[in-house]
């Protein structure tokens, strides 16, 4: 049965939103709705226009016989700025500061709406790069990795500090924790990452960068390639950071352990992505 | 500027899909698109019809001054059956069996498409219950908890077996691991769960049920209420299970440690939800 345009637009929108970065051939929609390719093309032009106006995503057209459309989620400049400001505000709330200069983030990183935004924001930065997997270390980086992986539509892998018997064979590396100056060990299941993969490292909180540096060693052990490093928040770190090229959404710039308060501001995300966000706004 | 119907339908669909179980007043859409309430009502009727036809969700109407619409994601009967069969097949693949009768699941539980389906399927079971939080234990239950929490649009909380300094004060319980018969400890950050909350427990794999039972004790410690227990897979367990009322998507029914193979079948999900799925299909 031929499907009406209004019904097609609704179902098409849902279908595309659930499959970011996936090439969908026009013939697929044409069959699904028993409609002519020319009608489908018109539908997609409307979807493209609406997504662009609302700054929620790009609908990319790939021409030719093997072509189709691909939905690429983005977060626009205004929304990005607002979200980062909101998060800086949330982090500056009283009672977040924990012993050792850590920040309580479990509430934010357990809220679907916040995770959706973090994922969409980080994915926007890497939308045109070859990311084959998102990597993080257990436990608190996992929600961020999962959300980014959803928007890039690639798998995520979890590095562990504890040895678990339920992972099968693993590859491990030693790393130095910059904050504690101790040597630690982290490992990743052998079969979880293929050689040559492009890997995006994400984490919830970076202090000295030791953990991120450990993941970098693991990527080298797997003969994979580092695409980038993105963290939700970077802490106030007085020493030399082990990692220099990273992106942070939020930066904790003042910690007062006596008054038990902290002050958070925007990280370097907007600076790093200024040109990209200008381009996307066009 | 007044927005055209086609554009409204696309943006409305996206807006609703991103906010499951959230009441959106008609006046919100009416302002957003500068369109009459009557037009918005017609739009929503089309969205409702398309969602119902494709069995992707229910668009519930709440009448009255404080009313609006609410999108409730579901997975239809056919899709549910197909997905469970597919997963049983994937689990039966060679090389998944690990020492101790565990099953390698990290690839599946790191794939966004698989997680989306698991989340939607589990959320369908609890769509009309008062779930305030999804609870799981680190590490491998996290992706499932996050996905279910997205579809129910409630926070998730992570119980930990190791003590981490970055969680603040915690409440801990001891529990007996049924598989190893050892006494273990698990804990949850004090501020992560309010008294009286309805809690849904999810996990990746259940053997004797000791871990799930531990979470049940934690829920009692927080004066919260258990709404249900859902696991992705239940293992072959010869002893007495500590938990009897649970739902599983997959059941591992044969394990041959000599040949290093296992055989997985559908869990009790379809039986438990037969009536509900029939009802939703109408």
UniProtKB/TrEMBL annotation, chains A, B:
Chain ranges of the Phosphoribosyltransferase domain: 108-241
Alphabetically ordered keywords of this record: DNA-binding, Transcription, Transcription regulation
InterPro entries membership: PRTase-like, PRTase_dom, Pur/Pyrimidine_PRTase, PuR_N, PurR_Bsub, WH-like_DNA-bd_sf, WH_DNA-bd_sf
Domain Bacterial purine repressor N-terminal span(s) in chain numbering: 4-73
Keyword Transcription attributed: yes
Subunit relationships: Homodimer.
Family: Belongs to the purine/pyrimidine phosphoribosyltransferase family. PurR subfamily.
Database matches in NCBIfam families: purR_Bsub
Protein name: Pur operon repressor
């Amino acid at each position: 049965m031929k499907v009406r345009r209004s019904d097609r637009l609704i179902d098409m929108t849902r279908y595309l939103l659930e499959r970011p970065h996936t090439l969908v051939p026009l013939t697929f929609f044409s069959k699904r709705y028993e409609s002519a390719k020319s009608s489908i093309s018109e539908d997609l032009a409307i979807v493209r226009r609406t997504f662009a106006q609302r700054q929620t995503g790009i609908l990319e057209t790939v021409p030719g016989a093997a072509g189709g459309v691909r939905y690429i989620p983005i977060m626009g400049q205004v929304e990005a700025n607002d979200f980062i400001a909101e998060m800086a505000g949330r982090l500056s709330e009283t009672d977040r500061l924990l012993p050792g200069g850590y920040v309580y983030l479990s509430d934010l990183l357990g809220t679907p709406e916040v995770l959706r935004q973090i994922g969409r924001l980080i994915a926007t930065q890497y939308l045109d790069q070859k990311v084959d997997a998102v990597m993080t270390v257990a436990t608190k980086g996992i929600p961020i990795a999962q959300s980014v992986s959803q928007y890039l539509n690639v798998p995520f892998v979890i590095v562990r500090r504890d040895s678990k018997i339920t992972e099968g064979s693993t590859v491990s590396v030693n790393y130095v924790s910059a904050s504690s100056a101790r040597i630690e060990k982290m490992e990743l299941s052998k079969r979880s990452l293929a050689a040559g993969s492009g890997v995006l490292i994400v984490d919830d909180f970076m202090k000295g960068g030791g953990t991120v540096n450990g993941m970098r060693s693991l990527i080298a052990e797997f003969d994979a390639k580092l695409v980038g490093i993105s963290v939700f928040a970077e802490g106030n770190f007085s020493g030399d950071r082990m990692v220099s090229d990273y992106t942070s959404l939020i930066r904790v710039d003042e910690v007062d352990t006596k008054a038990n308060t902290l002050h958070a501001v925007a990280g370097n995300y907007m600076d790093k992505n200024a040109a990209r966000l200008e381009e996307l706004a066009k």
